[in-house]
Design a protein that fits this description.
Blueprint: H1 2-22, H2 30-50, H3 53-56, E1 67-70, E2 73-76, H4 78-89
Antiparallel strand pairs: 1-2
Helix pairs in contact: 1-2
Length: about 100
């Protein structure tokens, strides 16, 4: 189960990094892109460590039509993602995003 959570966290980090890299509205330098990605990953890991859905909302799309597929399930809509992943799964003592 621990391995599945780690895969979920790593997959989410990759998704966040790719989302930032492809969502640039104006061209940025490699250094600017790297800084933005690092900041987003830092926010994500803080959200995981704190099991904080409000902090997680800064890196996830929070609309009702969003979907989050991971090795242990499939959540639909931000409310379910926040309840099932952020609050429940991430709050377990054995979890860590680092």
């Amino acid at each position: 189960m621990k391995v599945l959570r780690e895969v979920c966290v790593l997959g989410s980090l990759l998704f966040v990094a790719l989302s930032i890299a492809t969502a640039q509205s104006a061209p940025a330098t490699d250094q600017q892109s790297a800084t933005q990605i690092r900041q987003l990953i830092d926010t994500y890991t803080q959200a995981v460590d704190a099991a904080d859905p409000n902090l997680a909302a800064k890196v996830f799309l929070t609309t009702p039509d969003v979907s989050f597929i991971n090795p242990v399930g499939h959540e639909r809509g931000w409310n379910q993602i926040a309840d099932e992943c952020v609050c429940a799964s991430w709050a377990r003592p054995s979890r860590s995003a680092r």
